[in-house]
Design a protein that fits this description.
Elements (H helix, E strand, L loop, with lengths): L12 E5 L2 E6 L2 H13 L6 E3 L8 H5 L12 E5 L3 E6 L2 H14 L6 E5 L4 E5 L7 H12 L5
């Protein structure tokens, strides 16, 4: 993958949305999927920057096709990328149910939507803005005894 300067992009890729770095990935396809999910969630200024701080061309991201609304087999809402927690026929339904599950879960875990082939469509982020690390810290504080 080439960056805006025409050089080979340095890994990892950093995915930014609305002025914050939301994720990083060593894989270009995954980085694009994350960026698209941030755009779909309202990240109007989502973009990808390589490890050298050089932006990846916007047309590379725009060229990625949005996932179909109702593919054969529907969408699976996954917990920690490996356990199917629910299934929906449309992407809109999967996003709504995935958001409900993500926001209501008290045990720290990650949530994502996958297609019937098992490919990552997008990650689900909490509406309260807390990261997985923050959820884990709150869980540990609330449920685990502190050493004396």
């Amino acid at each position: 993958m080439k960056n805006c300067l025409g050089d080979e992009a340095a890994l990892p890729y950093y995915i930014w949305a609305n002025g914050d770095c939301d994720a990083k990935s060593e894989d270009w396809v995954e980085a694009k999927a994350i960026c698209l999910s941030l755009i779909a969630a309202g990240g109007k200024s989502a973009h990808i920057v390589d490890a050298d701080g050089v932006e990846v061309p916007v047309d590379e991201i725009d060229a990625v096709q949005q996932p179909p609304e109702s593919p054969p087999g529907g969408y699976f809402i996954m917990m920690d990328y490996e356990t199917s927690a629910d299934h929906r026929n449309t992407l809109t339904e999967a996003r709504q149910r995935g958001q409900e599950l993500c926001d209501s879960e008290q045990v720290p875990c990650s949530w994502s939507i996958h297609d019937a082939a098992g490919e990552l469509v997008e990650d689900i982020t909490r509406t309260d803005g807390r990261t997985l690390g923050q959820v884990m810290q709150a869980f540990n504080t609330q449920h685990l005894k502190q050493p004396r």
